[in-house]
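Amino Acid Chain and Its Fold in Token Form
===========================================
Scope: a single protein chain, as residues and as a discrete description of its fold.
Amino acid sequence: labelled as such and written in the usual single-letter residue code.
Position: the record begins directly beneath this header, with no further notes in between.
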Amino acid sequence: MTPLVLVHGFMGGSAQWALQAPLEQDRPLVRIDLPGFGANAHLDPINRIDGFAAWVLDTLRADGVEEFDLLGHSMGGMIVQEMTHQAPDRVQKLILYGTGSVGVLPGRFETIETSMARAKADGAKATAQRLAATWFLDMEKHPEYPACAAIAENAQLPALIAGFEAMQTWSGVERLASIQSETLILWGEADRAYPWSQVEKLWQTIPKTHLAVVPFCSHAVHAERPDVFNATVEVFLRGDA
């Protein structure tokens, strides 16, 4: 069975996919920790989206993973778009989850410049706790928030700044139409980071797309409604929709 590679977003990590374990019944799951984040917080961070993409592709090849289905969340969604351009023959099905086609997001709950300045002023731990809360519809009240914040707290300030810089300088708009993988666009209807305009752009421009909008969720559908998330991903990967 084709493995599914999971690429987390800004301040995420492989541990965030614990509730996706049921997907492993039918395929191998390859959970990535990006340099500077999660279990790889000790590695030097990367400050370009295409650099992250190349790193993930090299890591997969070193582990013997040549062809795969691919899911990217948030900043990870930008990274997997770049992966499809750098290695289109290796990517089978693509899932763009809670993400968009540009790094500088109109309508984001605050600008990247503001987030960067606040991170420098408040420090990495406080920034992790504050931003992780925005990923849930119920903010800190959601039962999965503590685990999510704990993963975010692995990242140190240099990784946060590098991640902000990577997003700030990236745009994939001009190459959306060249993505040939069958693609699922998955989004929480109350996402505070990626507005509908970004999601609609992906859906309307990538040639072979399906759209799933999950109600009562913000940016962390995989943790807020894991049953719906897992079932949606499973149906798409099986191709029996």
